[in-house]
Specification:
Blueprint lengths: L1 H8 L11 E8 L4 E2 L3 E5 L3 E8 L3 E5 L4 E5 L5 E6 L4 E7 L5 E8 L1
Parallel strand pairs: 1-4, 3-9
Antiparallel strand pairs: 1-2, 4-7, 5-6, 5-8, 8-9
Length: 106
């Protein structure tokens, strides 16, 4: 189901040389995480990630040093321009799980 949601939210085409606005969605549960395992974007792209959750936890995007608090019944959001290239884990802090990996290509 989440794969279908991601497919509907993705912009037309693959990341290219022109900046693209990407939208991704996740749901974090006690034992499950729904959403894409890898977020592939290009340097300069705008990235918006929305999170819903059944748990309370801090979520951190390493390398970009962005952090949001996840709370049940609320949507947490990260929005940024992908300026750093490489692979960056998106991790929970209280329950040490990796949500996804952000891959930023030149």
């Amino acid at each position: 189901m989440m794969a279908g949601l991601w497919w509907g939210l993705r912009p037309a085409g693959e990341p290219g040389t022109n900046p693209t606005a990407w939208q991704f969605s996740y749901h974090v549960g006690e034992a499950t995480i729904t959403g894409p395992a890898v977020l592939k974007v290009r340097r300069g792209d705008r990235v918006h990630i929305a999170f819903t959750s059944d748990i309370v936890d801090d979520l951190h995007l390493h390398g970009y040093e962005r952090e949001v608090l996840l709370l049940p019944r609320f949507t947490a959001e990260l929005e940024f321009r992908a300026e750093l290239t490489g692979r960056f884990p998106l991790e929970l802090h209280r329950d040490p799980r990796t949500i996804a990996t952000l891959e930023v290509y030149p």
